[in-house]
């Protein structure tokens, strides 16, 4: 910090100490105020892009827990090199809690390194075990003590880091894993506080997230999930006031934070689950220096092997072997510092390491999730294979060595001890003829040590060690990316790989979404054991390596295409450009959001007055969707005083998922201008930021009390489906989209109508009221049909079928113009939106499909007006009657007057036709967890659901006393049918409709009262 300038950090720390934060609830409220009270954006940047780059170049701080010989540090080195190409002569600083003495082999020595011990993470951080390995109970001494320790540790880091940032004129924080994998929660929070109070933008580079491979105990029980390697992060998920802090800061959401993730899956989770603005979420590909990671020449391979032999204590190429049993019993490898060693079955052997040596290389640290022990299980199977065993024994000079390059990771000594026992038992069980020809070499990152590099004029690099291997192995349970696969491919070395978790990350690295010429080829296995097929492929590769040269050449070509350093430079450049855009003053999104919410509110108020004959809302509220979002926030806050924060994230995630769907799956994308794309997403973001006035009442059961804020946010008055309508309106303002293209191919033919309905449901429907639907189709009654996306099939099932059965035509008789004229048909209204909404059909789509259809009967039905297309003005998904427009509402009135019914295949229709006073059938699948909860089934389950006029099928959501499934079971049950036979179905349904309007009694209880004779007299 320049002399004479007042320290802003001291002022920040002083203000934070003045908060007198004593409870977890206080901390949550502090974060709420920080998030809700900041201006947008909270950091301003020069308008000129070059000036912004020069400003950032004054100081870039890479901050992480520690710099060691691991994949994270190697990636940081690449990012730093990329930043040097993106920004003009930047001043870069590496900041960590610890620097391994060997990182000079990885990091640019010209870059300043700063050590702040309080930044150390995981087992080196006392708070890590307190947060994630010890279950807290609300109000216990440990629970109360932890918040004080956490806050004090946070303030220490704020003070140290803040002074460092000011002294070195840091303008950009490049945080690596600190706010995704919370190994030090105090550091995670400190970076949030510093970035907001010092006005520093952040690129949060996330290699892996705490939720990848981890679930809470409740989630595991509810969904039958297996235990995962990151379950410990959810140890205190039962305490909302504690866990919601982690959910908020890992990573922090705001326009000054760019989340730079290494996979599409991570990006999707951040947007859809945690509600991050898609503009602030970027996928960054990895990169490999193909000059360093390249095939070795034969002379250089020999030199590298000799250097590795020297590292293992040998002279030239001869290495002494330590007996693994003796090493275990004497505790030679039980604590640091670990010295590189070649372990075998017999003490005193001297091995020529450079000749006739099959090397199976695992280029990772020694850590439990890397599952190194699987390699020895695989070797046991390999030596049981007669072909391999015979070939190996036939060449007495042949050896096999498993080489692990990395150190024992922090806190993993116990795992290493178990691994040594696995190796000892494996060697003991080998046939005596080969027992002294199989070895385990642990290098403990010695290749990167200064003492090793000083020995040789041209010391070997880890990239060159790849070139000595016959096979690179990665049997890991989880990986953030899986870099060894790419590096092995660049070196032309084959790889044996488990399909690690997250499997989507693995699939992306391999390129399973790409054409065959762009996919990496590896030996692959699944699950906890290496299967027979992988064993046989490994055997053939080891015995006949020359037969696999074409695979090596293919993989090298793929790496050159997909994983070049230029791609990384481009990714980082684009990320900084996004950050520049987000830091510009821009009041337009907030104004657009305000206008859109006000327009929707006015439009709905006017529409509600026009539909009183279609929706009986005298004693209940019409609810087009899952529920008012403000109510859901309040209910969740009653369950847990802090859980509303997670619910807010979920609501934002639903909104941004829908917005992304409009952009990515709609008929046309947003305009290519980055500014216009940003404006749309920022306007969606502003829907959650805009507030007008204050809430009138604060009581202990209100969200205002729980949140300690009386601000009124208009979005909370809406259902998610209503909010989607607002978002689609904003999208249509941002771009003029043509209608989706209709697919004119004929519907697949099945043996019967019921089987074809199953196609719409994705299989046999769980709620199955097809018989009632079929009987209603046979009646000459008006139908209002709201189609989904399978237009040809739906028209065949519900238009053509309805007309044919009403005419009494059998399977082989053709529908003709004359036969249509003979009957006075009640019309079938096809009500479909006029303006587009993602992939949903429009009037233009339907007209196009009919014109291009090969189904002549369908065309005839519309020519003769038995089927009529009615344009609706709806913007959102589902069927919000208020949005339909005058023509569609008039059609619904005619359907109601005629005793007709609705067939709804449109997405979200089941959750939006609430209390509509017309009989309706919902056909399709439960689209998401919310819809499934209303229906009482699982997401993706199919349904053909009948809802009588005026009924609300789900009662008391979100803890329903009646679901769609239970209502269907009641209506299909013997008791309902018996009462209908006794009193008439119309009378029973009328009783249910009147009760629904006045009391909302579950259907089963209504039948109880009818059976007892107390309710039949209500009607007629």
Structure description:
The protein has 1020 residues and is of the alpha/beta class. The protein has an eight-stranded mixed sheet, sandwiched between helices. Strands 3-2-1-4-5-6-7 form a seven-stranded parallel sheet, with helices on both faces. Helix 4 links the parallel strand 1 and strand 2 (92-96). Helix 25 runs parallel beside helix 28 (720-734). It is globular and about 100 Å long. The termini are far apart. The relative contact order is 0.07.
Give a short synopsis of this structure.
The chain has 1020 residues and is of the alpha/beta class.
Tell me the span between the first and last alpha carbons: 87 Å
Uncertain ranges: none
**Backbone structural class:** alpha/beta
SS elements, strand count:
24
Residue-averaged pLDDT, rounded?
Answer: 90
Question: Radius of gyration over alpha carbons?
Answer: 33 Å
Percent range for helical residues? 40-55%
Biggest β-sheet description: 8 strands, mixed
The total of helices stands at 41
Global outline = globular
> Percent of residues in beta strands?
5-15%
Strand order, biggest sheet?
9-10-14-13-12-15-16-17
Describe how the helices and strands are arranged.
Blueprint: H1 8-17, H2 24-37, H3 49-57, E1 60-63, H4 71-86, E2 92-96, E3 112-115, H5 126-132, H6 141-167, E4 172-176, H7 185-198, E5 202-206, H8 217-223, H9 240-249, E6 257-261, H10 264-272, E7 281-283, H11 298-311, E8 318-320, E9 322-323, H12 324-330, E10 341-344, E11 350-352, E12 357-362, H13 373-384, H14 386-394, E13 399-404, H15 413-429, E14 438-442, H16 450-453, H17 462-466, E15 471-474, H18 483-491, E16 495-498, H19 503-510, E17 523-525, H20 532-543, H21 549-562, H22 565-582, H23 588-610, H24 629-639, H25 644-665, H26 674-687, H27 703-707, H28 720-734, H29 753-761, E18 767-768, H30 770-777, E19 783-786, H31 791-807, H32 817-821, E20 828-833, H33 843-852, H34 856-863, E21 867-872, H35 886-897, E22 901-904, H36 909-912, E23 919-925, H37 929-935, E24 942-947, H38 964-971, H39 974-983, H40 985-998, H41 1003-1011
Parallel strand pairs: 1-2, 1-4, 2-3, 4-5, 5-6, 6-7, 9-10, 12-13, 12-15, 13-14, 15-16, 16-17, 18-24, 19-20, 19-22, 20-21, 22-23
Antiparallel strand pairs: 8-11, 10-14, 23-24
Helix pairs in contact: 1-6, 2-9, 4-22, 6-7, 10-25, 13-15, 18-21, 23-26, 23-28, 24-25, 25-28, 26-28, 29-31, 39-40
């Amino acid at each position: 910090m320049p002399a004479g300038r007042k320290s802003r950090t001291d002022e920040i720390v002083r203000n934070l100490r003045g908060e007198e934060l004593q409870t977890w609830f206080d901390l949550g409220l502090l974060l709420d105020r920080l998030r809700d009270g900041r201006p947008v954006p909270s950091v301003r940047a020069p308008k000129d892009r070059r000036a912004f780059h020069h400003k950032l170049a004054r100081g870039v701080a890479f901050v992480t827990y520690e710099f060691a010989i691991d994949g994270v540090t190697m990636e940081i080195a690449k990012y730093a090199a990329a930043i040097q190409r993106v920004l003009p002569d930047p001043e870069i600083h590496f900041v960590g809690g610890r620097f391994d003495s060997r990182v000079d082999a990885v990091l640019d020595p010209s870059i300043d390194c700063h050590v702040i011990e309080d930044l150390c993470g995981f087992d080196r951080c006392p708070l890590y075990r307190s947060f994630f390995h010890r279950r807290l109970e609300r109000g216990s001494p440990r629970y109360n003590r932890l918040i004080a320790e956490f806050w004090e540790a946070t303030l220490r880091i704020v003070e140290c880091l803040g002074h460092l940032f000011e002294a070195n004129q840091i303008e950009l924080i490049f945080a690596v894993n600190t706010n995704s994998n919370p190994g030090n929660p105090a550091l995670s929070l400190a970076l949030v506080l510093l970035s907001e109070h010092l006005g520093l933008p952040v690129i949060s580079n996330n290699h892996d997230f705490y939720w990848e491979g981890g679930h809470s105990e409740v989630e595991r029980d509810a969904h039958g999930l297996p235990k995962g390697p990151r379950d410990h992060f959810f140890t205190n998920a039962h305490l909302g006031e504690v866990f919601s802090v982690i959910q908020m800061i890992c990573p922090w959401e705001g326009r000054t934070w760019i989340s730079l993730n290494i996979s599409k899956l991570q990006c999707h989770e951040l947007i859809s689950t945690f509600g991050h603005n898609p503009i602030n979420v970027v996928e960054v590909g990895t990169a490999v220096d193909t000059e360093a990671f390249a095939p070795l020449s034969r002379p250089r391979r020999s030199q590298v092997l000799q250097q590795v032999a020297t590292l293992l204590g040998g002279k030239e190429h001869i290495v002494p072997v330590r007996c693994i049993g003796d090493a275990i019993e004497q505790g030679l490898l039980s604590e640091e510092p670990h010295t590189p060693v070649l372990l075998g079955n017999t003490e005193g052997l001297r091995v020529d390491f450079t000749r006739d040596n099959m090397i199976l290389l695992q280029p990772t640290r020694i850590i439990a999730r890397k599952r190194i022990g699987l390699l020895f299980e695989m070797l046991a199977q390999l030596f049981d294979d007669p072909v391999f065993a015979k070939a190996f024994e036939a060449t007495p000079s042949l050896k096999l060595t498993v080489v692990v390059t990395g150190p024992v990771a922090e806190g993993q000594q116990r795992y290493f001890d178990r691994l040594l026992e696995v190796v000892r038992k494996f060697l003991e069980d080998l046939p005596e003829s080969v027992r002294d020809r199989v070895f385990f070499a642990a290098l403990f990152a010695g290749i990167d040590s200064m003492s090793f590099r000083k020995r040789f004029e041209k010391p070997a690099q880890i990239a060159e060690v790849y070139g000595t291997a016959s096979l690179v192995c990665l049997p890991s349970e989880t990986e953030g990316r899986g870099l060894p696969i790419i590096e092995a491919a660049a070196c032309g070395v084959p790889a044996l790989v488990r399909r690690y978790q997250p499997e989507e990350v693995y699939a992306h690295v391999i390129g399973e979404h790409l054409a065959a010429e762009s996919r990496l080829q590896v030996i692959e296995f699944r699950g906890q054991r290496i299967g027979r097929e992988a064993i046989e492929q490994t055997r053939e590769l080891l015995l006949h390596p020359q037969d696999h040269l074409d695979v090596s050449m293919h993989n090298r070509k793929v790496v050159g295409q997909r994983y070049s350093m230029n791609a990384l430079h481009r990714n980082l450049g684009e990320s900084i450009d996004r950050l520049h855009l987000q830091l510009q003053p821009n009041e337009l999104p907030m104004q657009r959001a305000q206008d859109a919410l006000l327009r929707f509110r006015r439009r709905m108020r006017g529409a509600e007055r026009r539909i009183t004959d279609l929706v009986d809302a005298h004693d209940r509220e019409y609810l087009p969707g899952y529920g008012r979002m403000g109510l859901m926030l309040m209910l969740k806050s009653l369950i847990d005083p802090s859980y509303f924060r997670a619910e807010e994230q979920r609501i934002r995630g639903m909104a941004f998922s829908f917005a992304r769907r409009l952009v990515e799956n709609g008929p046309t994308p947003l305009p290519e201008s980055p500014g216009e794309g940003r404006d749309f997403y920022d306007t969606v973001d502003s829907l959650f930021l805009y507030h007008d006035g204050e809430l009138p009442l604060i009581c202990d059961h209100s969200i205002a009390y729980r949140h300690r804020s009386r601000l009124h946010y208009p979005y909370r008055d809406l259902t998610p489906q209503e909010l989607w309508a607002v978002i689609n309106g904003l999208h249509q303002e941002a771009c003029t989209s043509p209608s989706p293209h209709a697919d004119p191919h004929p519907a697949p033919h099945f043996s019967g109508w019921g089987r074809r309905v199953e196609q719409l449901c994705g299989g046999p429907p769980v709620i199955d009221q097809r018989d009632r639907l079929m009987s209603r189709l046979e009646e000459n009654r008006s139908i209002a049909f709201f189609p989904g996306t399978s237009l040809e099939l739906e028209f065949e099932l519900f238009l053509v079928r309805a007309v044919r059965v009403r005419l009494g035509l059998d399977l082989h008789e053709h529908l003709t113009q004359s036969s249509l004229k003979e009957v006075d048909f009640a019309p079938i209204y096809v009500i479909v939106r006029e303006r587009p909404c993602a992939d949903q059909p429009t009037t233009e789509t339907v007209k196009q499909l009919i014109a291009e259809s090969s189904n002549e009967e369908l065309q005839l039905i519309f020519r003769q007006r038995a089927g009529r297309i009615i344009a609706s003005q709806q913007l959102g998904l589902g069927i919000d009657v208020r949005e339909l427009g005058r023509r569609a509402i008039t059609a619904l009135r005619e359907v109601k007057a005629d005793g007709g019914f609705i067939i709804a295949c449109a997405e979200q229709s089941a959750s939006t036709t609430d209390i509509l006073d017309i009989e309706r059938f919902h056909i399709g699948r439960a689209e998401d967890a919310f819809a499934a909860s209303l229906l009482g089934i699982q997401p993706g389950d199919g349904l053909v659901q009948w809802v009588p006029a005026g009924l609300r099928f789900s009662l008391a959501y979100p803890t329903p006393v009646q679901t769609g499934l239970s209502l269907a079971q009641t209506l299909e049950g013997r008791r309902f049918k018996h009462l209908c036979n006794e009193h008439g179905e119309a009378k029973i349904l009328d009783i249910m409709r009147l009760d629904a309007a006045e009391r909302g009694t579950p259907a089963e209880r209504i039948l109880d009262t009818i059976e007892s004779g107390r309710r039949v007299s209500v009607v007629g």
